[in-house]
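queue> pop job 88
queue> type: inverse folding (structure -> sequence)
queue> payload:
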């Protein structure tokens, strides 16, 4: 018996617009063998089973027998799904599979919709894990010409993936978020904002792309950033520069370059030789390595050029990171370096107070505050540079969004001339009578002296949660030793 039926678009099969030739027989190896190959496009030659309604088989253009199941669900149009090929199934196992699907249709379940839901659920089990979703997010940003910088990616990995990487974005609960916030707070209050910003970024992206619906676990407040108004005085940043020199290694050079260029810590500490044109004394900072997400051309002042050049005097060996302790990895500029630096500042501060008969102290500061040193001083007399030129040095956008669209100059030369004047001013301060209390060369500091000086230097400073925890642990150890004694 031969009958025709129109072709429909269905899962796992390409659309065919022509009529299909249908033959009904009990499907077996003997009935499959004479089936002719179907063309790559056009009419397929089906044999439909007389035992299980909707169970069929055809041969592809390459001659592979392929089993299908076709049905009509609740008065809708016919749908067909591919079950698999001969080899993946025997005839009987394919018929059993088709019989199972037929039972689902009779009991009110759409097998294609069910398989799609199961496939989507399986994909979500992996794709909506925060760790996997983040990798996809990074890839989409890159192909969308809006790449994330290496430092941004590192923050996400440190402050989000390390805590919630194995959780699904669409199944986050308020308890998950509360626990996450507590873990972040243990590392310091500022970490809470950083981690929640990362999480909110992925949640908003997923909701916008309809990857999932917003849930109660997605609703949380991100703490507002506290605006720091800390500005180091000339006396303070001079002590900081002296301490950076006292450090005596590439990490100290990073601190000095930060003060001389007004750039971000990661931009300097992770600087590779490949971004530098030493012959032209230029630095081409790529978009993925700065917060603005745009490429920048930076003219190197003479003093910074000299600092960079001495990191590797042999031009033929200038590959990899500029500032490195081992030749392969960039220097780490974390809390341990800050501890050493602060103890060295304290020694210079104490010597300056003894020389001048004063009792000046340092209030709390961070390495990021070094950006405000040139930015603030250059805005005032005797420099009085324009805000636009200072923003160009800081790699900030000048003006509003409309200005960013139509005013495309980065004031490269103007910023370069200004930074050269600032570096000349820094040299004048270092050569002045108020610099280098105790002499240019001081002996290495013993670890015990460092601990004592660090405690005195930071007396009265706000403590991070991790510092409080360390102090509490140290106190517990002392009490336990006393009990044993």
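queue> result:
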């Amino acid at each position: 018996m031969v009958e025709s039926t129109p072709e429909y678009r269905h899962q796992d099969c390409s659309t065919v617009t022509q009529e299909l030739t249908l033959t009904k027989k009990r499907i077996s190896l003997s009935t499959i063998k004479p089936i002719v190959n179907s063309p790559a496009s056009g009419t397929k030659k089906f044999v439909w089973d007389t035992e299980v309604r909707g169970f069929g088989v055809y041969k592809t253009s390459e001659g592979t027998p392929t089993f299908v199941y076709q049905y009509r669900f609740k008065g809708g149009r016919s749908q067909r799904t591919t079950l698999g090929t001969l080899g993946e199934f025997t005839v009987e196992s394919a018929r059993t599979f088709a019989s199972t699907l037929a039972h689902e249709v009779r009991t009110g379940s759409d097998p294609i919709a069910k398989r799609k839901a199961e496939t989507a659920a399986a994909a979500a089990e992996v794709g909506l894990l925060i760790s996997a979703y983040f990798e996809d997010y990074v890839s989409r940003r890159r192909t969308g010409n809006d790449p994330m910088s290496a430092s941004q990616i590192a923050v996400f990995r440190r402050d989000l993936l390390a805590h919630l990487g194995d959780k699904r974005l669409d199944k986050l609960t308020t308890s998950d978020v509360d626990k996450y916030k507590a873990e972040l707070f243990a590392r310091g209050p500022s970490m809470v904002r950083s981690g929640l910003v990362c999480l909110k970024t992925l949640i908003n992206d997923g909701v916008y792309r309809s990857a999932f619906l917003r849930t109660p676990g997605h609703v949380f407040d991100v703490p507002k950033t506290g605006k720091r108004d800390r500005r180091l005085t000339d006396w303070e940043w001079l002590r900081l520069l002296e301490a950076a020199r006292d450090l005596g290694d590439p990490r100290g050079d990073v601190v000095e370059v930060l003060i001389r260029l007004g750039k971000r810590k990661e931009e300097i500490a992770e600087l590779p030789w490949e971004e530098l044109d030493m012959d032209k004394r230029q630095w081409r900072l790529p978009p993925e390595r700065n917060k603005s997400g745009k490429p920048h051309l930076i003219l190197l002042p003479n003093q910074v050029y000299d600092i960079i050049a001495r990191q590797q005097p042999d031009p033929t060996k200038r590959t990899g990171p500029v500032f490195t302790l081992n030749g392969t990895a960039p220097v780490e500029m974390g809390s341990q370096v800050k501890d050493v630096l602060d103890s060295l500042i304290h020694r210079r501060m104490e010597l300056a107070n003894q020389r001048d008969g004063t009792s000046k102290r340092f209030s709390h500061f961070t390495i990021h505050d070094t950006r405000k040193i040139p930015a603030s001083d250059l805005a005032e007399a005797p420099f009085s540079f324009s805000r636009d030129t200072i923003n160009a040095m800081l790699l900030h956008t000048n003006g509003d969004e409309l200005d960013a669209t139509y005013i495309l100059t980065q004031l490269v030369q103007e910023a370069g001339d200004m930074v050269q004047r600032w570096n000349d001013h820094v040299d004048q301060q270092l050569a002045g009578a108020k610099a280098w209390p105790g002499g240019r060369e001081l002996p290495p500091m013993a670890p015990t002296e460092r601990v004592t000086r660090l405690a005195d230097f930071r007396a009265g400073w706000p403590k991070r949660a991790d510092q409080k925890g360390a102090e509490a642990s140290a106190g517990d150890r002392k009490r336990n030793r006393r009990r044993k004694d």
